[in-house]
Each structure stands twice: as C-alpha cells, then as structure tokens.
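The records we work with from here on pair a chain with its fold. These numbers are not coordinates but entries in a learned vocabulary of local backbone shapes. To see the layout at work, look at the sequence and tokens printed below.
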Amino acid sequence: MRITKLPDIAESEITPEDIFMNRRRFIEMTSGLAFAASSVDAWAQETRGPYDTDESKTPYKDITTYNNFYEFGTDKDSASRNSKNFRTQPWTISVEGFVKKPQPYTFDELIRNLTIEDRVYRMRCVEGWSMVIPWRGFELRALIKRLEPTSRARFVEFQTLYAPDQLPEQRRGFLAWPYVEGLRLDEAMNPLTILAVGLYGKPLPNPNGAPIRLVVPWKYGFKGVKSIAKIRFVDKQPVTTWMNLAPDEYGFYANVNPVVDHPRWSQATERRLGEFFKRKTLPFNGYADQVASMYSGMDLRKNF
C-alpha cells in the first residue's frame, strides 16, 4: 500500500468534506438494503436497464452546479453556492391522504428493501437546455404498492421540505412555499418514474435535491420536485407551484411537446449542456414509446 504524504496531494484532488460526509451517511443509512452498499467501491458499479439512453452523460460538475432549486436562489449556480450547509439527516417523509399506511417515515424506513437501480435518463428543462443524467433510485410504483393507496386516490402530490431557516428563498415571496408538484396516479406508476437517491454512483448532492427527489424523464424539469418531505395521495388534481404562479404558462401535465411553444420562447429545439449547437426536441423527450398511450385521446395542446 503506497501512502502519499499530504503535501504531495493536489488540493483539487481532495474530496470536499460535505461530499465525503454525505456519501458516508448514505452508505450508513442504506447498509441494510437489498443492494447492500457495503463499501465505497459499490458506488462505482453501474447496471444497464431497458430505459437507459446511450447518449453521452453530462459531466458530474455540470449536473451539480447548473440547475434550478429555487429555495436556494434563482440563478443556475445558486443551489451549488447556497446549499452546502443544508441538513439532510435525520430526514422524515410524511405520507398522507387516501392510503392505507399513512404515517411519517424516516428516510431509511421509506426505502428499506426497495430495489435501487442505476438509470441513465435524458432530462429536459422548459428554458431550452437539457442534460443526460445517470440517476440512482427506485421505481416510485414499488413504493406506492407498499403504501397501498385506496380506490379514492387518483393523484400523487409531492412537497419539498418547508424550512425557511435552511432554505433562504422560502423567507421571500417569489413562489408559494412549500414547493408542490403532482402526478396522475398512472403516471406515478409508470416504470420510468423513479425517486432518485443518488447520481453518478454517489449519494444525491444537496444542489440536486438531497436526500430524495422525483425524476420523470418525459416531462419538463420543473416536475422534478426536490428534497421531498411529504407525499399525499389525493382525489383531485393538485394545484402545483408553477400552475399557481402562472397557469397560462405552466400546465399540470408538463409533457415535453415541441409543437407547443412556451408563451415566451420556442420549445422546438434544445441545447444539451456542454454542446454549442442546438438539437431538435423530441416528443415526450424521446420516451413516447413508453408513455404516449397514457395520453391517448387528450388534446396535448390544451393539456400542456
């Protein structure tokens, strides 16, 4: 074993303490799960799934420093700058509504014995930029089956943690807090829909919604509610945060539809982060074969 003296190690090669501690906490919390990450080396292993894209992945640095997490600010780098001290342990998720097992769950209780997978998904933001992200998470439908929603449940509502002492923008009135998103129950049960707990083989970083967030790859990015603290099974369509702010610009479904322009810009093209040229936007972000049937007969120009 070769031991390198500290002065010989470049500062750029030293893992930041917050990343190291987040990674260690995640491994500790998930030590009893089916995927049994018993060592750091386990994070380097990746699997290939039937829904993975083979497109080039967006670099980790770009994914974690260029995103929207409005609780930390409105600039694309606000979350990476302002979330370093965000506390994600202990973490509790409250399950409420028309479900047979409503109660607060610790993070460990919620994900216990669920199959954790690696999924490489295309992700599209409404502003016209996109990424390819290697997520680590579990199918939302597996959790839903465990929680046993009743026959009255038709939608699933998600809420971000409300903690103005940690999330500075919640002390201001830019959006109605806490952040709210929702899915129709069949959308939530689609095998593409996951709750992510990591990316690039690492625990989910704070700027990307630690410790747990929603990922719905055929929808625009604002459906990816972060740092989930509440899941509600409801019988009426939730009024989501962006619908509440600007219903003429942001509908409930948020499906990627290149022929429906945003009132202030075109959706026909996108720029992959790190690329110079734009590319054509794909219907349902390229996942039409898997999801289009759920919207059969709907006017997707009105149900945007």
